[in-house]
Design goal:
By secondary structure, the chain is mainly beta. It folds into 2 domains: 1-28, no CATH class; 32-300, Porin, CATH 2.40.160.20. It contains 5 helices and 10 strands, in the order αβββαβαβββββααβ. The chain has an 8-stranded antiparallel β-barrel. The chain has a two-stranded antiparallel sheet with strand order 6-7. Strand 8 and strand 9 form a beta hairpin. The protein starts with a helix and ends in a 14-residue tail after the last strand.
Length: 314
């Protein structure tokens, strides 16, 4: 009886070993390359907008789903080991935030808004595992293992580094979108003001994806990614209010309005405190964003080389 159970236990372990290695040792090496597209949504986490509460840095609980915008892109994945991938991707997404969409009294009174097109290029390392998508029926002229081969699933976690370009815009008093960068809305370049920010920045993506591969060729999945950036100006908001009259003098009436279009609901909110520190316009924490994307991929199979047969002279 012991030998009977041991026999089937060893068969089960052997089956799992083959499943994790594409059913033959080294078989996964023939499926190293994959190209994929994705389409989904983008969500901003920064100074502007947010839920009807005091903002929470980097927290998904502060997401304003009304400001959801689109994200799309394409990428390439290379399988280094069966459990380790390298991938690179280019994505285009839109980020948006608006203080009018929150009932938090301070942010609503601030009355700032923005949207920005973001072009992001990243590289990342992915770690995870591949497994068989279980089935439970035999098919005519097909073994159970053959049916298993036709569908597999993967779960991977990843991190990496990227670079992106952004260009924040805001609505003026007429409702038109205007570029905020040349307006120096926080007094960039003026005495006592901050340096002008750059519209290129570094980012670090952290995320996970789940995908199903059909017939070792077509893949479909979902990818959730939180991206930490190393800029606080995705929304053109970072520090404190600069003197509005000085901004008007050097950069014009439009710049002065876009620097502080407050509603007047909280008197003195933009005034310096007793120590002369400017009123708080932002929180000096780096911005971030979340993307939720559906992925569609194509796995390229490496063909085996045929060995030449020697022709006999006899």
């Amino acid at each position: 009886m012991i030998n009977y159970h041991l026999k089937y236990f060893l068969l089960f372990i052997t089956f799992l070993s083959f499943s994790q290695n594409f059913y033959r040792p080294g078989e996964w090496k023939r499926y190293r390359n994959e190209y994929f597209l994705y389409l989904g949504s983008s969500h901003f986490l920064g100074d502007l907008g947010g839920r009807d509460r005091e903002g929470t840095d980097y927290s998904p609980v502060d997401l304003d789903w009304n400001q959801t915008r689109s994200a799309l892109g394409l990428g390439y994945r290379y399988k280094i080991q069966n459990w380790l991938n390298f991938s690179t991707a280019f994505q285009y997404l839109i980020l948006k935030g608006d203080d009018k969409e929150t009932k938090d009294p301070f942010r609503r009174n601030r009355n700032l808004n923005f949207k920005s097109n973001v072009f992001d290029l990243s590289a990342r390392i992915e770690l995870g595992f591949n497994a068989i998508k279980a089935g439970n029926r035999y098919g005519i002229k097909k073994t159970l293992l053959r049916r298993y081969k036709n569908r597999t699933w993967s779960l991977f976690f990843y991190s990496g580094i990227g670079a992106f370009y952004f260009n924040p815009k805001g609505r003026d008093f007429r409702g038109n979108w205007v570029n905020l960068y040349p307006l120096h809305t926080e007094g960039q370049g003026l005495p006592g003001g901050p340096k002008q920010y750059k519209r290129f920045a570094i980012s670090m993506p952290f995320g996970a994806f789940y995908r199903i591969v059909f017939n070792r060729k077509w893949s479909f999945g979902i990818d959730i990614c939180w991206t930490k950036t190393f800029t606080d100006y995705l929304d053109d908001v970072s520090g404190g209010y600069y003197n509005k009259d000085s901004i008007r003098k050097y950069y014009g009436d439009l710049a002065a309005y876009m620097s502080d279009p407050h509603l007047g609901l909280i008197p003195g909110h933009n005034a310096p405190d007793a120590s002369g520190n400017p009123g708080q316009r932002g929180d000096n924490e780096k911005d971030s964003y979340i993307t939720i994307k559906f992925t569609f991929g194509y796995v390229i199979k490496k063909t085996r080389r045929r060995t030449a047969r020697l022709k006999s002279k006899f």
